[in-house]
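Appendix B, example 12.
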Amino acid sequence: MKVAQSLFISDISFLHIAYISGKKLLMQRPTLKTALLIIFTVFILLLQFPLISIANQEIHIANTPLLYFYIFVTWILMIGLMAVVLERRRPNP
């Protein structure tokens, strides 16, 4: 019988410490620039052809075409997620 490796992560200011099978691994948090770049890239991919064509149908939500609703919700989620990342990274005075 194999025993699954345990994973424990604790957050200490700027470092994440991961314990895998009793071994201590230090992982730095991504920088602000990296986090924003990842968010931006994911949302740009959400607005590319294969995914946006799924929303291009004759369905209406609140009397708004599904495509417009999809673009608007995606845009609002990107702004909100970036705001959350920026607020969490703000240094305390």
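The helical segments are 32-46, 49-54, 66-89. The first strand starts at residue 7 and ends at 12.
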